[in-house]
């Protein structure tokens, strides 16, 4: 902005310089023309008055040279003005480009600072993320170790459980076989005891029948002995004892059968 402010009065100063140069050039041309005119007049004074036409021609030539010099100076002044305008225009363009470049540079510096700040923030977040990732990896490693340990323990337990199950299954099979054999034995024994019971009952019935027959026979004998004068009391006691013994034997056999069934 300072360069633009300083550039504004430059055309007026340049115009004044050009005007001064133009005036000096004009004065110089006049002086040159006057000098030439004086020299011509001196020569005319020393020459023959008959050469007046020639002197008039030279004066006209000198006047023409002066006009030509003035025109040349004016052309040069115009060229300088045009060049000055071009330079001023270029200078303005350069100042504008410089201002734009400075603004862009300031914006770029601001953007660069913002990018640097964002990069710093992202680096901080990256460090935090890496720390979290490291912690997560450590936790994952510990978790994997625990999982592996649990899997190993589970395999050991499964192996132990399988062995115990196999042992129990074997024991169950043995017990089932023993139970089957015991039941079969019990059935066999029950059948055997039932047969024995039936046999004993039959024997008891036979013995009872035999005893009754013997009783009857003995009764007849006793009756005969009474007739012969023998006391009947002893014979009756013996018969009663025999009957009681047979009944007791049968009862004992039945009790033994019931006890065997309970076992």
Kindly describe this structure.
By secondary structure, the chain is mainly α. Among the domains are: 2-119, no CATH class; 197-262. The chain has helices at residues 2-7, 10-46, 52-228, 233-262. The longest helix is centred in the middle third of the chain and has 177 residues, at 52-228.
Radius of gyration: 81 Å
Strand count: 0
Shape: rod-shaped
Return the structural class.
mainly alpha
Q: What's the average pLDDT?
A: 74
Uncertain spans, ≥5 residues at pLDDT below 50? 1-14, 230-234
Which tags fit this structure?
coiled coil, 263 residues, 4 helices, rod-shaped, disordered N terminus, mainly alpha
Summary, kept brief:
The chain has 263 residues and is mostly helical. The chain has 4 helices and no strands. Among the domains are: 2-119, no CATH class; 197-262.
């Amino acid at each position: 902005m300072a360069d633009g402010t300083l550039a504004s009065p430059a055309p007026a100063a340049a115009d004044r310089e050009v005007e001064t140069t133009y005036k000096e050039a004009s004065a110089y041309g006049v002086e040159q023309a006057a000098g030439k005119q004086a020299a011509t007049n001196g020569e005319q004074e020393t020459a023959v008055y008959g050469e007046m036409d020639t002197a008039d021609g030279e004066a006209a030539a000198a006047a023409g040279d002066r006009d030509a010099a003035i025109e040349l100076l004016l052309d040069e002044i115009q060229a300088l003005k045009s060049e000055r305008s071009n330079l001023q225009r270029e200078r303005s363009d350069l100042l504008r480009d410089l201002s734009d470049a400075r603004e862009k540079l300031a914006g770029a510096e601001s953007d660069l600072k913002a990018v640097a700040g964002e990069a710093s923030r992202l680096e901080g977040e990256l460090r935090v993320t890496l720390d979290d990732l490291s912690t997560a990896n450590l936790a994952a490693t510990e978790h994997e170790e625990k999982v592996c340990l649990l899997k190993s323990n589970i395999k050991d337990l499964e192996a132990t459980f399988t062995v115990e199950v196999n042992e129990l299954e074997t024991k169950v099979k043995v017990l089932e076989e023993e139970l089957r054999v015991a039941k079969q034995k019990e059935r066999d024994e029950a059948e055997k005891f039932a047969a024995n019971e039936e046999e004993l009952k039959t024997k008891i019935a036979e013995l009872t029948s035999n005893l009754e027959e013997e009783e009857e026979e003995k009764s007849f004998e006793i009756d005969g002995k009474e007739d012969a004068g023998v006391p009947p009391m002893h014979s009756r006691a013996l018969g009663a004892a025999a009957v009681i013994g047979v009944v007791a034997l049968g009862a004992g056999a039945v009790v033994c059968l019931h006890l065997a069934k309970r076992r």
